[in-house]
């Protein structure tokens, strides 16, 4: 069955265009990807096949196989996430990206012979060396018309008074930053994503430029409904649209630079029973007793899968536009890299890294696989949840996933969280720290728009402890989901803080609890073995409050050690910063970790210390999460929130750490436990003095 899920018929050029461009009619339909390079993945996927039950009428549509045109299903990418990394530089994302790009590599089929092979070789030559250069040249002229005015106005950065509240930048500089960002919007999806990516690289770009780029939004026009229907039908093996959906909202929920999203409801014969990918397959008494106890003590959410789905569809032709834009970016990055004053930025490497990020988002099967892995990691956790991906219907250009009912976290930040304010803040930090410290698989696009808040009723313990096999769940349409009912009560009060708070108080009184739902998992951060070792070494130095050593490690293991300016001064600055934190051990809850990390990135930029992008992604995620947490709960303490995760990490891998002589996590754990105990003791003494409990007056 797993091989059947892995082998799919290539429906049409609507789903995958091997040439990535609208070729002249003689060139169409003659280029195919090499299948030999994918044989290993298919064999591996089939070898570990595990039968999986689907609703009646669903398997028949998935057993279509063709020898000539074959594309990997999302299930094969899920298999890749279950494999262990074999090399120091390998990650799950790199494995999936390699397979994805190899699948669409332009080549002549091995089975072609004689005149047919010669004709295909001529077509391939014309496509690669005639057609593509012409299209890239035309695109270059379009971009030149947009960015030449930006280049000509560079002298404006030396005009105007300095603005102390805005990093002491000149008013002309701020105007030019805004002009540059507007040009990125005009340039299209690749440059919009470039600006959004650049906003997270405050180790390279000025803080004010990053702040302006962080507000970069897309006004990309939605592609036509006709194109959407054509692409979606291809994902469902050519079925008629009314045979796929009971309901389909023709107006997109959102339009991004790369894709747009619709809300729909699948036909009952196509919809999955809820949570089939994480149902328990254990029938022992101890496991079921534990599950029932946790449902009482931990307020376990009652999971009621949505009968609606979100349909994410790539814009037609976006892949070829991005590919040409990346080629142009790489050309200019190589030219700029020749300038002596900016060679430390290593712009060609940054363009390559950005290109990998873009390519990951251009294959929606990778996002489906990420969702599956996140759901597996959070299977037994209550802090956050991820939508169920319908992998059998997800393709390179289409992602079908469970519709996440919820209200964006941004609404709670604007209107307040009422009685749930502290819970929402602590659950967001807890989920992020578990991703970072336990899973090494972090959602890399965390912002309030990608975090939804829903409300749930606690799951009731089951009286039947000896369940045999998996717990059977009725179809979603037969389960009462109160989530949408609660959210519909809350939505009318957006912008009306008093009524919003009053309704939240009612919801709290009725026994509902909040839960975060993370969406848009196309980008993740996973440290490879080398980077993780560097991270742990740096963590150990900070845990020992040895800032000087931490500074030297950052310089020695950065991407360009020879380009670092004043390594000794940088290390001394790090030592001063770390000692300042050490002096406030008992008041760490009042310290903003994001402020400290911002100072570190400022020093990194000043001394030309080129950090790995994965490190910076983690730092930016901490910025965002702590900022969100403090906006909801000013007393949030990132270090205290990490204490339960450190306890679990110590229980899981404490023996391995001790065997390897790594006591950094143990030191942090013991230090935080001591700080919490001392803080509790001080608070108790202050309370006794305040209420005259030490020597009460008689």
Question: What are the main properties of this structure?
Answer:
single chain, globular, 698 residues, alpha+beta, ABC1 atypical kinase-like domain-containing protein, five-stranded antiparallel β-sheet, disordered N terminus, four-stranded mixed β-sheet
Overview of this structure, please?
- The chain is globular.
- The model is unreliable at 1-37, 45-69 and 290-298 (pLDDT under 50).
- Helix 7 crosses helix 9 (207-214), helix 20 runs antiparallel to helix 21 (547-556) and helix 23 runs antiparallel to helix 24.
- 51% of the residues lie in helices and 8% in strands.
- It is of the alpha+beta class and 698 residues long.
- It contains 26 helices and 15 strands.
- The strands form five sheets. Strands 5, 6, 7, 8 and 10 form a five-stranded antiparallel sheet that branches.
- InterPro entries: ABC1_dom, ADCK2_dom, ADCK_kinase, Kinase-like_dom_sf.
- Residues 216-269, 307-454 form the ABC1 atypical kinase-like domain.
- This is ABC1 atypical kinase-like domain-containing protein.
- Belongs to the protein kinase superfamily. ADCK protein kinase family.
- Pfam families: ABC1.
